[in-house]
């Protein structure tokens, strides 16, 4: 099957209900359109039309429909005062379009949203967002993650700035408003509890250690993403880079370079034998273990990274050091997944209300 995305002209009506207004975006797996809901005068919706092969893979290669329906079901069963459901994209309707040339295309209908977080971040000098705004955004994202992790049993797997949307942003003066609502969107690679938990996930620079190693992963992989993004929103820079390093054996692979940076940053005491044994016991099950660990050199990394500064020093360089902020970041950026705080626990961290 040749991968094909559908395009629509303005005023075309889909599913006898939705009248296309204009295109909103195009990705590798789908197109997104603004449409009028003809059953409700004045109401507009966003329609995401999946590529034909992505439609065919629903329930096996991808689980977007299953995940969105699970979110809807749990939202309906959740107390109205619970904020978590409002922090994630909610499915309003879905239907399938039959095309003579390309076959079936699954379409999701949702509320239209505003700017994404990357667009907002770019509006600030050096892409460094004010700390109170970062606290506001991160708190709402964690509320959404607590809901999908604990209630829906779903891992998002692709948390990044352009998958985080604003419902609205401030008032006419540009000041942050308490009414600003952040929505976690794009569940096209999200995985339910029964899904494949060893597939390669996450944006390259934001990949968790267990993902790089090829180990089983879970909701704590999303928490790693949150740690990386929080750092980036405050400093304007990536904490880790998925890129090769120079070594005495020549260039490493990007994966080896990335893991070496993480290990150098997080493993502060290499003489801690208990921590070393625990590290090896967990990661030795990874499909990529041999690519990173040299058994002939005492189970050390094939390559080490000597230039990584400690987190506290990095935060001071950017003039954003705060003891509570450092602790908050460390609660998410732990090399062993079991050591990372859950989204629900992170919501109680004092930095979010500092």
UniProtKB/TrEMBL annotation:
It holds the Pfam family Pkinase. It comes from Schizophyllum commune (strain H4-8 / FGSC 9210) (Split gill fungus). This is Protein kinase domain-containing protein. InterPro entries: CLK_kinases, Kinase-like_dom_sf, Prot_kinase_dom, Ser/Thr_kinase_AS. PROSITE patterns: PROTEIN_KINASE_DOM, PROTEIN_KINASE_ST. Residues 18-352 form the Protein kinase domain. Gene3D superfamilies: Phosphorylase Kinase, domain 1, Transferase(Phosphotransferase) domain 1. The keyword ATP-binding applies. Keywords: ATP-binding, Kinase, Nucleotide-binding, Serine/threonine-protein kinase, Transferase. GO terms for molecular function: ATP binding; protein serine/threonine kinase activity.
